[in-house]
Design goal:
By secondary structure, this protein is an all-beta fold. Helix content is 0%, strand content 41%. The protein has no helices and 18 strands. It has a four-stranded antiparallel sheet, with no helix packed on it. A four-stranded antiparallel sheet has the order 7-8-9-10, with no helix packed on it. A hairpin with a 4-residue loop joins strand 11 and strand 12.
Length: 220
């Protein structure tokens, strides 16, 4: 795991996963500054680095996990595939050492980004394309609403929700996700902006694997 400063091009910190595991999704807990990383190893599939440093604690979700996200209370959510390949959501409550696993409706599709949107846990489907807003209570995770994303005819990649918008890499033609679009969230509907040029890079050389928004405050 490599950390960059806002606008930086050189790493400022590097974290190593156990067993040489490759990182997938990751998320930072706003309450503790702990960093959770989805990966694969003999000791577990979630590594949590305290305060984004040192040696991580390992957890098993009971899933073939893909992406993860913290809510505003410090609870960690992980999506992936459960028994029989069922789409599922795992929850690690703050202070707990054991994941709760919830089976999801099949309509949610291939697991993509998981993020707290200010009200609900969002589950991005990489092939629908849509984002499902989930409410977790008791022993169930229910779909509260669906954010439909128009204009995407092919596969999309992990998204990022910020300031009532969602940014998503996707492709219009071919097999490379080389366009970044913005949609209103949670309204969805038509794309409100598409970014198709990236400095001197040619589109055929680009294939984005995800996107985020780096927010920097300036003192006046």
């Amino acid at each position: 795991m490599t950390e960059f400063a806002h606008g930086g091009t050189q790493p400022i910190a590097t974290l190593t996963l156990p067993d040489g595991g490759a990182a997938d999704g990751c998320s930072v807990d706003p309450m503790t500054n702990n960093l959770a990383v989805v990966f694969k190893s003999s000791g577990g599939d979630i590594a949590v680095f305290p305060n984004e440093q040192g040696t991580p604690s390992l957890y098993r979700t009971g899933l073939d996990s893909t992406y993860c996200g913290y809510d505003d209370k410090g609870d960690l959510y992980v999506n992936g595939y459960g028994g029989g390949g069922a789409y599922s959501l795992g929850e690690l409550p703050l202070g707990s050492g054991t994941f709760n696993v919830y089976k999801l409706d099949n309509s949610v599709g291939t697991p993509g980004q998981v993020q707290w949107d200010g009200q609900y846990i969002s589950y991005e489907s990489l092939d629908t394309p849509a984002i499902f807003r989930l409410s977790v209570s008791g022993s169930q995770a229910k779909i509260v609403s669906t954010v439909s994303l128009r204009g995407i005819k092919h596969r999309l990649m992990p998204s990022w929700i910020y300031n009532n918008n969602v940014m998503i890499p996707y492709n219009i033609r071919g097999s490379r996700q080389n366009v970044v679009g913005a949609w209103k969230y949670p309204k969805g509907g038509r794309v409100i902006r598409s970014i198709r040029k990236f400095d001197s890079f040619k589109k055929r050389e680009i294939m984005f694997a995800g996107v985020t928004v780096s927010v920097h405050s300036y003192l006046k």
